[in-house]
Write a structure and sequence with these properties.
This protein has about 350 residues and is α+β, with helices and mostly antiparallel strands. The N and C termini lie far apart (about 45 Å). The strands form two sheets. A nine-stranded antiparallel β-sheet has the order 1-7-8-9-2-3-15-14-13. A nine-stranded antiparallel β-sheet has the order 4-5-6-12-11-18-17-16-10, with helices on both faces. Helices cover about 25% and strands about 30% of the residues. A hairpin with a 6-residue loop joins strand 16 and strand 17. It is globular and about 60 Å long. The relative contact order is 0.13.
Length: about 350
């Protein structure tokens, strides 16, 4: 399919009400491929200009824009946070954003392509949507940033111009299939559990999995009864409703291959909805929106990790493909013990029944 055909078919899918990701899937392309096809001169409402790095410098330049919308998603969960990009740093390919509202862990080795995207609305009186969109080598979106009403639009447009490089021609390739997890019998389970018990920080968990060659959900299964327990798929809805009722501040982590985005604070408006046959669980608060497909949820775990500050407990949801949808914690900083109100919420979530197992 050539670029003009892609643009025409993408526009038709958009006119049918589909978001970028779903419109691209309908025409058989990755989202990155569909966006890249909108470069150059044409008459379609969506226009994309390739961006050049360094990505850290681009993100640092966004502070002058004031509040913007940061969006990170995976296949079944979308995390949207409004705030200012501040306190950006990187060590090698790993970056951090530690602003008051925009809290990110950035894995720049997965940031293959970026685009400044302008999309004109059907209503001539509505300002065009402006965004910066970043994709991995397969065309999967890793992070997006949107201009909003409170944004300094001129400053945002300046960032789009400064980092725009129309001559860049990003190419995408299909993602190779992920290697199959090793069999449980091939994992040194006693060694894994001993290392788990010896953890001093929650961040030790990722290195531990790598050391023992265990897939994340596999490790939870091997630790079941000691550090983990399965709970009902309703646990995520229950924890959000309890947190909203009690006013308990929580942390919500949602990741793509190139970014983990974090909300810290209370949640208030919890709204389950059915949209086009999909069951969405939503947090619809000023400054923070979460959209999680409950019907995509296959398993939910309570996970305990030892740290120098005591046990830290998370609730982790996985989809039917084994992908981590979201993680939930009580709000805390290093050096602080886990909040008792969060522990009370975790104790209340429904256990997994034999029928649901």
């Amino acid at each position: 399919m050539n670029a003009p055909q892609t643009r025409e078919r993408f526009a038709q899918a958009r006119a049918a009400g589909l978001r970028h990701k779903d419109a691209a899937a309908r025409i058989g392309l990755s989202e990155g491929e569909a966006i890249a096809a909108h470069g150059g001169e044409h008459d379609h409402p969506l226009k994309a200009v390739p961006l050049r790095g360094p990505w850290l410098a681009l993100l640092q330049a966004l502070e002058a824009c004031g509040p913007v919308l940061a969006l990170t998603r995976n296949e079944s969960t979308v995390h949207e946070k409004t705030g200012v990009y501040q306190k950006l740093s990187a060590t090698g390919p790993v970056g951090l954003a530690l602003g008051a509202d925009i809290d990110l862990r950035l894995f720049f080795n997965q940031w293959h392509a970026g685009f400044a995207v302008t999309e004109h609305a059907a209503n001539p009186g509505t300002p065009a949507s402006l965004s910066l969109q970043f994709y991995d080598a397969s065309g999967l979106a890793v992070h997006k940033i949107f201009c909003r009403e409170a944004t300094d639009r001129a400053a945002f447009e300046d960032v789009m111009r400064r980092f725009g490089e129309p001559a860049l021609g990003y190419l995408f390739r299909p993602k190779p299939p992920a290697p199959a997890p090793r069999a449980d019998e091939a994992i040194d389970a006693p060694g894994l559990l001993a290392a788990w018990a010896a953890m001093k920080d929650t961040h030790d968990f990722f290195g531990m999995l790598k050391t023992f060659g265990a897939e994340r959900q596999q490790s939870l299964r091997l630790a079941e009864g000691r550090f983990t327990r399965r709970v009902a798929p309703t646990a995520v809805r229950e924890l959000l409703q309890e947190a909203a009722f009690d006013g308990a501040p929580i942390m919500v982590f949602v990741g793509s291959p190139g970014c983990i985005q974090i909300h810290s604070g209370p949640v208030a408006r919890i709204e389950p909805m059915e949209i086009r046959g999909a069951q969405w669980l939503n947090v619809l608060d000023p400054g923070f929106n979460l959209h999680l497909r409950e019907d995509a949820m296959a398993s939910v775990w309570v996970v305990e990790k030892p740290t120098v500050d005591g046990i830290v407990t998370s609730i982790e949801a996985f989809d039917h493909g084994g992908e981590l949808m979201a993680m939930f914690f009580g709000e805390r900083k290093p050096g602080q013990p886990e909040r008792e109100d969060w522990r009370a919420i975790v104790r209340k979530v429904s256990p997994l029944t034999a029928e649901a197992a």
